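User: What would this chain look like folded?
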Amino acid sequence: MTTLKVGIASYEDMKARTLAIARGARRPSPDEPKVWFTSTESFAKVLSAGNRKLLRTIAEKTPGSLEELSRLTGRAKSNLSRTLKTMEGYGLVRLERGKRGQITPKIMADRVELQLPIIAGKGLV
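Assistant: Here's the prediction, encoded as C-alpha cells.
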C-alpha cells in the first residue's frame, strides 16, 4: 500500500506555506507531508489506539458496509460514520458509496510518517 506523510504545524505556518506555494515563491518537494495537523494532540486523537484498531479491522476484514463494520467492531454506526469522515479528511480512508447509498470504507495508507518540527516555523516556508 502507501505511506501517508503528515506534518504538524501551526495554522499560521500552514497558511504562510500555502500562500508561498500559490505565489510561486516556494515549490514543495515530493517528500514533504501532504496532510497537516495543527497539533500533536489532534494527530494523537485521529490516530488513537482505538482508531488504529479500527483501521486494522477495515484492512483485514474488508467490510462491505458501515453496518458490517459496526458488527465487527461493536461501535455504533453513527460513531463510525463521524470517525471515518474525519479520517477521510486526513486521507487515511476513502468512503465509497455503493448500492442504495451503502457506504464502504477503504484504507488509503498502511502506514503514517510524521514530520514533527521541534522549533516552531522551521521548514514550512
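Residues 66 and 80 are 7 Å apart (CA to CA). If you want, I can go into more detail on any region.
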